[in-house]
Amino acid sequence: MTLTYELSEIDSIAMQLLSKVKSKTLLFYGEMGAGKTTLIKALVKALGAEDAASSPTFSLVNEYHSDQGRIFHFDFYRIEDENEALDMGIEDYLNTESWKFIEWPQKIERLLDYPTQKLEILVENEGLRKLKFC
Question: What is the pLDDT of residue 55?
Fold first, then answer.
């Protein structure tokens, strides 16, 4: 399945995405600047988080609280190998029933033997994105 959207439609796309996924562990693929963090911010908002989401590029994980429970947002862009994810306790996070949004999951692929939903964001042009369910 593919959803095409303009950035101005991001909140609507987030709601559609949440209604269509079969896993609470979402893996976001896409080039730098494709809009992974922007979409995750909209997802966190759609889930009713108390705080606005921000990129966890340096902290590796941000945690948010909503009426639907905890939400974890991971960004593994800066890690060098899977051991860094293991050191921060990724397995404990993955074993929860919480929502988990993971940017740059290709850096930890061997650790992802859990049910997941792969999503790829493609840049069509400056304001248009294509979201592919893989």
Answer: 76
DSSP string, the chain: -EEEEEGGGHHHHHHHHHHH-S-SEEEEE--TTSSHHHHHHHHHHHTT-SS-----TTTSEEEEEETTEEEEEEE-TT-SSHHHHHHTTHHHHHTSSSEEEEESGGGGGGG--S--EEEEEEEEETTEEEEEE-
Domain CATH number, residue 85: 3.40.50.300
Is residue 130 within 8 A of residue 7, CB to CB? The reply is: no
Residue range 33-86, pLDDT digits in tens? 899 999 999 999 999 998 877 777 667 899 999 988 999 999 999 999 999 999
Helices 36-46 and 10-20: crossing angle, nearest 10°? 70
> Is the pTM of the predicted complex or chain greater than 0.90?
yes
**Domain that includes residue 7, residue range:** 2-133
Q: What percent of the chain has pLDDT over 70?
A: 99
Number of domains into which the chain is organized: 1
